[in-house]
Write a structure and sequence with these properties.
The structure is a single chain. β5 and β6 form a beta hairpin. Among the domains are: about 90 residues, Translation factors (Elongation Factor Tu (Ef-tu), domain 3), CATH 2.40.30.10; about 110 residues, Nucleotide-binding domain of ferredoxin-NADP reductase (FNR) module (Rossmann fold). The strands form four sheets. Strands 12-11-10-9-13-14-17 form a seven-stranded mixed β-sheet, with helices on both faces. It has a five-stranded antiparallel β-sheet with strand order 5-6-2-1-7. α5 runs parallel beside α6. The chain has ten helices and 17 strands. It is α/β, with parallel strands linked by helices. It starts with a strand and ends in a 9-residue tail after the last helix.
Length: about 290
């Protein structure tokens, strides 16, 4: 089991969870993820490692409560445990000296873009970080990226902070104004990543997307995470999760992600119908009672 060292909310339905996982922390590189089970009989879900500290053996995860498992995970507090964590998994981001890089994160994709931006900065790149959210309260990691040296450009759907509009509006404006990044990295909803690719493709800008398909085992055995890239079947858990965005079949990715939508909704509704005592019973194996 893996002890939660710290847990707190950073945005509506988004929680920052720092976990004691020294072996994962020692080997983690930007772009990699873990697969975890909250309880012994729970489902396995992938989460990007947003940060790691080999010195204290911790990894940091950002969790958005969108389904049964993530809602259960976000009920855990400091001192509770997570039953299983496997990782780091996936191929690390190819970090090079691009001169200037643009990192685009939408929604929870901000947590995926964050470690890539930090790695690019450490490699000597200038980094423009375009962050998108529904409103100012839904934005997170803005201050951390700015403190690290990124030029942060927030965008909100409601205009409450930064540009009123989509991340692609900001990206297109930058490029139209003469920006010439060596790479654009995108992480977020499928429709957002496709839109980013549509902006950069006619300009011939190398663009990388961090894909988010259904994933179970993280070793390429189940085939659930298969995606089509350049007409070839690839497995996001071992060949990715990052691929050339101009080669990704985003339509197929979206259809595959939607395949279990009704089942996921039913399971979510079943959890919402439980009272606090019943949910506490589910989490009993990973809940640590405070010491007297």
């Amino acid at each position: 089991m893996y002890t939660i060292l710290e847990a707190h909310d950073v945005a509506p339905d988004v929680r920052r969870i720092r976990v004691d996982a020294p072996r994962v922390a020692t080997h983690h590189r930007a772009g990699q993820f873990v697969i975890l089970r909250v309880t012994p009989d729970g489902e396995r879900i992938p989460l990007t490692i947003a940060d790691s500290n080999p010195d204290d053996g911790s990894i940091t995860l950002y969790v958005q409560a969108v389904g049964r498992t993530t809602k259960l995970l976000n009920r855990l507090e400091t001192g509770d445990v997570i039953n299983d964590i496997a990782g780091p998994l996936g191929r690390a981001t190819d970090i090079e000296d691009y001169g200037r890089a643009v990192v685009v994160g939408g929604g929870l994709g901000i947590a995926i873009a964050y470690p890539v931006a930090i790695a690019l900065l450490r490699a000597g790149n200038g980094v423009d970080a375009i962050l998108g959210a529904r409103s100012r309260t839904h934005l997170f990691l803005e201050d951390e990226l700015r403190s690290a040296g990124a030029d942060v450009k927030p965008c909100t759907d409601d205009g409450s902070h930064g540009r009123h509009g989509f991340v692609t509006d900001e990206l297109a404006a930058m490029l139209d104004a003469g920006a010439e990044p060596g790479v654009v990295f995108a992480a977020g909803p499928v429709v957002m990543m496709k839109a980013v690719a549509d902006v950069t493709r006619p300009r011939g800008i190398h663009t990388i997307a961090s894909l988010n398909p259904i994933m179970v085992d993280g070793t390429g055995m189940c085939g659930g995470c298969r995606v089509s890239v350049g007409g070839r079947t690839r497995f996001a858990c071992v060949d990715g999760p990052e691929f050339d965005a101009h080669q990704v079949d985003f339509g197929l990715l979206q259809r595959r992600n939607d395949a279990y939508r009704d089942f996921e909704s039913t399971r979510d509704q079943q959890l919402d119908a439980l009272d606090d005592c019943e949910i506490a019973g589910i989490l009993a194996p990973v809940h640590r009672e405070p010491q007297a």
